[in-house]
Please model this.
Amino acid sequence: MKRLLWLGVGLAVGALVVRKLTQKANEFTPSGIAGSVSQSAGGLVESVRAFVEDVRVNMAEREEQIHEAFANGVAFDDQFEDLRGDDLEVQLEEPTHPRQRHN
Model:
């Protein structure tokens, strides 16, 4: 009876190992690789869609804040002014034609 129990345990473990090895080997076949790539691409597309949706929502909120400030006649506080560098004064020299040479 004890041998029959161990035989059953051995068969169950063997079947699980063979099943896992078959699944892993199937991942490296052309169809398995194609399925993996399509799942990855689908996840990437969904991530990009979620990002674009977040940007649109936040952009609409910010635009609404700007419109409200403008409608109320309030100077809108631009919290990103220092990041853009609008306050920098750039002095440009007169452009010269490449064919004109200064001697």
Remarks:
- Residues 13 and 19 are 10 Å apart (CA to CA).
